Amino acid sequence: MNPLRATAVKIGSISWMPNYLPQIVKCDSALQKVTGGRLSLLDIATLPNVTIRVPGRSSGVMRTTRLLAVPDGDDWLIAGSYFGGPKMPQWVFNVRAADSVEISRHQRTWTAVPTELDGDDRADAWQKLRTVWPNFDLYEQRTDRRIPVFRLRPS
Predict the structure, then answer these.
(1) Is 77 a domain residue?
(2) Does residue 22 lie within any of the structural domains?
(3) Is 56 helix (H, G, I), strand (E, B) or coil?
(4) CA–CA gap between residue 123 and residue 38 (Å, rounded)
């Protein structure tokens, strides 16, 4: 594992990290704004990621979120871990309500159909997610909620 990713994994495992997630998100948003969306903290950590755009389930306003994402063939896998915090990330509710999401990566944009995984499909996807971000197991231990896992399949 490269040193930047190893450092990110170490930082991500710190037990009090969920307390600072709002500040981390603000810092990451500022970095993305300054770089015109070309760079995020995930990029610095050499972690694969995508930007999803999905309409808000109540407002219909497009919401944009950069997420750690693991490629699986032409699909991408994402997990609503929120560092193992007690609350579900808001993007999860929007993705659950959407028929499709817009995905961007490296100045390429496409539409994908999100599917929330369960059973063996979730277990297989979870193992793939763990190979990139081993802290997912730790996050699962930190929270009482079931961390949702989605497959984003190009439409």
Answers:
(1) yes
(2) no
(3) coil
(4) 32
**Cβ-Cβ contacts under 8 Å for 136 (sequence gap 6 or more):** 79, 81, 126, 129, 130, 147
Give the pLDDT score at 147: 97
| Ramachandran quadrant class, 124 (left: phi over 0; alpha: psi -120 to 50; beta: rest) | alpha
Cα gap 68→133, rounded to integer Å: 9
Q: Taking phi first (over 0 means left), then psi (-120 to 50 degrees means alpha), and beta for anything else, what does residue 72 get?
A: beta
User: In the predicted model, is pLDDT for residue 154 greater than 80?
Assistant: yes
Domain of 90, in residue numbers:
40-154
Does a structural domain hold residue 123? yes
Q: What angle do CA 41, 44, 47 make, to 5 degrees?
A: 85
Q: What is the DSSP letter of 39?
A: -
- Kindly state whether residue 112 falls inside one of the protein's structural domains: yes
pLDDT, tens only, 129-144: 999 999 999 999 999 9
Domain count, the chain: 1
112: domain CATH number is 2.30.110.10
